[in-house]
Amino acid sequence: MRRMWLRSWLIVTLLSLVSAVQAVTVNGVRMWPAPDHTRLVFDLDAPVQHSLFTLRSPDRIVIDMKYTEFQASLPALEQASFIKEIRYARRGGDDLRIVLDLNRAVKPKSFVLKPHREYGHRLVVDLEDAQGKARKPIRRDSEIDGKPRDVIIAIDAGHGGEDPGAIGRRGTREKDVVLAIARKLKTKINRQHGMKAVLIRDGDYFIPLRKRVEKARDLRADLFISIHADAFHNRHAKGSSVYVLSENGASSEVASILAESENNSDLIGGVSLDDKDDLLKLVLVDMVKNSTMEESHDVASHILKDLRHVNRLHKHRVEQAGFRVLKAPDIPSVLVETAFISNPREEKNLRSRNHQQKLADAIFKGTIKYFKGNPPPGTLLAIKDHEHRILRGDTLLALAQQYQVPVSDIKRANKLKGDLLQIGDVIRIPRNLTNDS
Questions:
Q1: Exposure on the CB side of residue 333, measured as CA atoms within 13 A
Q2: Measured between alpha carbons, how far is residue 212 from residues 63, 136, 172, 323, 337 in Å?
Q3: Which CATH superfamily is domain 384-429 in?
């Protein structure tokens, strides 16, 4: 009798376990197309067992999920995506099969993520171009084909895709406002003679922190600027901050919390933070010893001084923290916390296009001031001021047009109070390094 009871108990237990396994539900599907990859995220109500394989002629990706049912809507397919169509069907009665019809061959990668912040269990599928077309890097040689080159600025808008960053009380998402500021800064820099800006992220998609640094190095950037608008548990915390890398972590409690927050974005993106690579540690130690850290601090100081005219400063000195995006060993790197999105007043300002432009202008001014005093050799900014002997018929306006320099800069460089020029005098024509251009 006891054996019969035990057998019945085991059967009921096994049936309940099978029932629990069968309870996995896909309740959402999100897609984040980027220029060089597409991420597909399946939101689940429990962990899932899955397998993935590829098929050719035509190109397809097949994803099988054990004991899973589909109760979600399919995302709208964007033209930039590698995916042409998404299909799904039951398989074997209990399993779910999802088929991705592709526009071209891709290299797939899949992994599961545990609940984190506002997200539950997830199955993430990353698709990268199988052809592996590498972006041709912008050369950071002293000169290109014997001619002076542009100074390259890599602008990194923090977060993106399924990682919204900090969220204000009015629902303002950090990833949106920092991208808007980054785009305005790019426009400002690209109007400047001798400078070129490139966005690390130019859309709503996720890029792992390490890959952001790699992109900047691929571009051979002269400067890396990461833009953020973080939050703090105290809603009264306010002000702008500028950070450089600290080998030992953070230089204040706020810096420590913000650094942890930024680095944790890789938990959302699916990249492990357990990086104990000895070679990287050696590189970081070497970076502290070389001039990169000093250059980073100089740039940060200039940007901080100009930000004070737009927003209250959280600290009146450059902060140091262990932000992962600042760890390029050979590129001066700064991280700008434009404001606290957790502060209601600063959140309101961050939503304003006019205020976003002011922040971009301040970052630009600080950047151009640094490069005016420290132009990289072989760049257009390193060209010295030109001397011009005044001839009959010369006017300030004509000289400004000839050399593409604002009249105000010529007058300032020569301490001219009026517009009259004396024939035979030699005046300096400054390099075109003003935001009037």
A1: 25
A2: 29, 16, 23, 12, 17
A3: LysM domain (3.10.350.10)
**What tens digit of pLDDT does each residue of 382-435 get?**
877 778 888 888 999 988 888 888 888 888 888 888 888 988 898 888 766 444
HSE toward the beta carbon, residue 216, CA cutoff 13 A: 29
Nearest to 133, CA basis, from 218, 202, 32, 221: 218
CATH code, 16-129: 2.60.40.3500
Report d(CA 50, CA 31) in Å as an integer.
19
Where do the structural domains in the chain lie, given as residue ranges? Answer: 16-129, 148-373, 384-429
Q: In what order do the strands lie in the sheet with 195-199?
A: 195-199, 151-157, 223-228, 333-337, 241-245, 319-321
Determine the topology of domain 148-373 in CATH.
Aminopeptidase (3.40.630)
The pTM for the full model equals: 0.74
Contact 263/327 with Cβ under 8 angstroms?
no
Q: Which residues of 261-281 are buried (b: 16+ CB within 10 A; e: fewer)?
A: bbbebbbbbbbeeeeeeeeee
DSSP state of 404: T
Q: For 155-184, how does the pLDDT look when each residue is reduced to its tens digit (9 = 90+)?
A: 999 999 988 999 999 999 999 999 999 999
CB count in 10 Å sphere of residue 96: 23
